[in-house]
Design goal:
Layout (H helix, E strand, L loop, with lengths): L19 E11 L5 E11 L3 E5 L6 H8 L7 E6 L2 E2 L4 H6 L1 E4 L11 H11 L4 H14 L15 H12 L6 E5 L7 H16 L3 E6 L2 H7 L2 E6 L2 E6 L1 H8 L2 E6 L3 H14 L8 E5 L2 E6 L2 H14 L6 E5 L3 H9 L16 E5 L3
Parallel strand pairs: 3-8, 3-9, 6-7, 7-8
Antiparallel strand pairs: 1-2, 1-4, 4-5, 9-10, 11-13, 11-14, 12-13, 14-15
Helix pairs in contact: 3-4, 3-5, 5-6, 8-11
Bound molecules: adenosine-5'-triphosphate (ATP).
The site of adenosine-5'-triphosphate has 13 residues, from helix 1.
């Protein structure tokens, strides 16, 4: 995970040398059928930040991003993007943003170079600058070797990289990425991540929506969690994880629900942990979140053994964003939406005797 200070030189089309890339206040979007997709969102994204918008399917991520990108007009609240109001200055907003939609907009009949050239024309990149800009972008997304191949021959990851390149063709200071890695294998996803980090390091502000906790953790300076159209938490990945508090002790108890419930009761009411320890039943045992879980883990095992409860293993780990999500929302993200290889922040696996 990266910890760095957002830059303030990430583009300044308004010419005032300051201000946020996005300033949103009380944003609401109710669809014509009455669906309240966004219910009063407040959000500020400083220039140069890599910002993550994290939430499960249907939470309102795409709707929000579309209001910022002027593709939907908010039914309430106000939004300023790069210093321009999305209602009064929609054209200016569009000139200063890149937008990578969930579905790629790559034309499969055209080569990579032709796709970027087409976008360059559409975005009004001056003719004299086009060729150099296209080569630069092909290099940036590692498609220079296949520049003259048709996109229909590309893998999903290559198409996504090409799509990202077309979103950047007019050098926008702010780029929206709507679930850019959904459906990609881990290798393709990692390459896209490198590319996003590279453009962010050049000063571009990035607004990323994702259902992948690991993705947000890895890339973002700051994250807001959205649920049912409302922001329920905002902070750096580290701050959000700290909010869970302490460490997590997972104890494996093979003997069914009754044994697990008894173990949970002991962990809650015994003298092992402070009163603010949080104890939850899991599929195969119990999970204790506490300030000094590591120190007191063995005490709990002894207490459980004395109570006749069999423990087959335990593991102490730092909280992940999954734990954050669970703590904030009381529900886990759809497991299918999560990546196959979550960041390894676990401590050593310790097996009880
Ligand atoms: N055109 C529409 N008309 C009515 N309701 C809509 C429309 N588009 C989206 N919705 C609803 O608005 C809510 C938010 O959808 P949205 O697509 O913004 O969520 P999301 O977080 O981006 O989810 P996903 O990851 O599935 O894209 C959902 O309940 C969705 O069914």
């Amino acid at each position: 995970m990266r910890e760095r200070t957002p830059r303030t030189d990430g583009g300044d089309p308004a010419g005032d040398g300051r201000g946020d890339a996005i300033e949103a206040s009380g944003v609401e979007l109710t669809y014509a059928d009455g669906t309240e997709a966004v219910k009063g969102i407040d959000l500020s994204v400083p220039k140069g930040e890599f910002f993550g918008f994290l939430g499960p399917n249907g939470a309102g991520k795409t709707t929000t991003i579309k209001t910022f990108a002027t593709l939907l007009s908010p039914t309430g609240g106000s939004i300023t993007v790069n210093g321009y109001d999305v209602r009064d200055d929609a054209r200016r907003v569009r000139e200063t943003i890149g937008y990578m939609a969930q579905e790629t907009s790559v034309d499969e009949e055209m080569t990579a170079r032709e796709n970027i050239r087409f976008a360059a024309r559409a975005y009004g990149v001056p003719k004299s600058e086009r060729a150099a800009r296209i080569d630069e972008l092909l290099d940036l997304v590692d498609l220079a070797d296949v520049a003259d191949k048709r996109a229909s021959e590309f893998s999903g990851g290559m198409k996504k990289r090409l799509d990202a390149a077309t979103a950047l063709v007019h050098s926008p200071p702010l780029v929206f990425l709507d679930e850019p890695t959904t459906g990609l294998d881990p290798k393709a996803r990692n390459r896209l991540w490198e590319y996003f980090e590279r453009i962010n390091e050049r000063g571009t502000t990035l607004f990323l929506t994702t259902q992948y906790l690991e993705e947000a953790d890895q890339l973002c300076d700051r994250i807001s969690v959205i649920l049912d159209g409302e922001i329920v938490a905002t902070g750096s990945p580290m701050e959000l994880k700290r909010r869970v508090g302490g460490e997590i002790l997972d104890v494996e108890i093979p003997d069914g629900d009754e044994a697990r419930e008894r173990a949970a009761e002991i962990a809650r009411t015994g003298d092992v942990f402070d009163a603010d320890a949080d104890v939850a039943l899991t599929d195969d045992g119990i999970s204790v979140t506490a300030e000094r879980a590591r120190q007191h883990g063995t005490d709990l095992l002894v207490t459980l053994r004395d109570a006749g409860i069999t423990v087959t293993g335990f593991n102490i780990r730092a909280p992940t964003l999954d734990d954050v999500f669970l703590a904030i929302t009381g529900e886990e993200l759809d497991s299918e939406a999560q990546s196959a290889d979550p960041a390894d922040v676990t401590g050593p696996e310790v097996t009880a005797e």
